[in-house]
Amino acid sequence: MESRLSVIEQDSRQNNIEIHCLPEYRQENLVKTLMQISKVVSFPLTETDIVACNRVQKQNPASKVPKTVICRFVSKLKRDNLLAAVYKYNKSHPKAKLNTKLLGFGDVKSAVYISKHLTQANKSLHAATRIWAKEKSYKYVWVRNGRIFVRKDDENPAKVILQQFTLKSLN
User: Fold this and answer.
1) Of residues 15 and 169, which shows the higher confidence score?
2) Of the candidates 96, 86, 92, 77, which has an alpha carbon nearest to the alpha carbon of residue 43?
3) Strand, coil or helix: what is 169?
4) Which CATH number covers residue 94?
5) What is the pLDDT of residue 41?
6) Is 17 exposed, middle or buried (0-12, 13-18, 19+ CB in 10 A)?
7) Is 108 in the same domain as 128?
8) Same domain, 148 and 111
9) For the chain, percent of residues with pLDDT exceeding 70
10) Domains in the chain, number
């Protein structure tokens, strides 16, 4: 039952992205900020492609990191294409990855991160998997459709990581 609920909860986020480390301002317009991101990464986006953009409460209220922004798109395809554009941009600009200066937030460069909107359980599992993969010299860790995958190298098949104990069964 818990597993089914987790799948449903993750599925409800399939059109969403999270934006981390974006500075907060009183009269901010998050839709315009998202439009600026799309310009920087050369991805055609219109305001009608965006259903909603909101900030969410912090896990740790004492943290100085700005609140995370959740943006919901009209389709999963739009979300995936924007994420691909951000990835491509960051890969082609290794010394000037997406940052606050590019988005017009002053002269100080501070990294801005964009990712899929995972449930808290999947975020924790993804973090644990990345740490485990680094220790075990796995080359790839990725998320697709709310599921976490690992691959040792180009010759080995991908494996789905559903829970932390799955990591222990891999070599």
Assistant:
1) 15
2) 86
3) helix
4) 3.30.70.330
5) 95
6) buried
7) no
8) no
9) 99
10) 2
Q: How far apart are CA 149 and CA 130, in angstroms?
A: 10
Task: For residue 155, give its domain range.
Answer: 121-169
What pLDDT score does 110 carry? 92
Query: pLDDT category, 3, cuts 50, 70, 90?
Result: confident
pLDDT tens-digit series, residues 119-159: 888 999 999 999 999 999 999 999 988 889 999 999 999 99
Cβ atoms of 41 and 25 closer than 8 Å = no
Mark whether 12 and 30 lie in a shared domain. yes
Give the model's confidence band at 106: pLDDT under 50 very low, under 70 low, under 90 confident, else very high: confident
- Confirm if 56 and 67 have CB atoms less than 8 A apart: yes
Token pair for 104: 């017009």
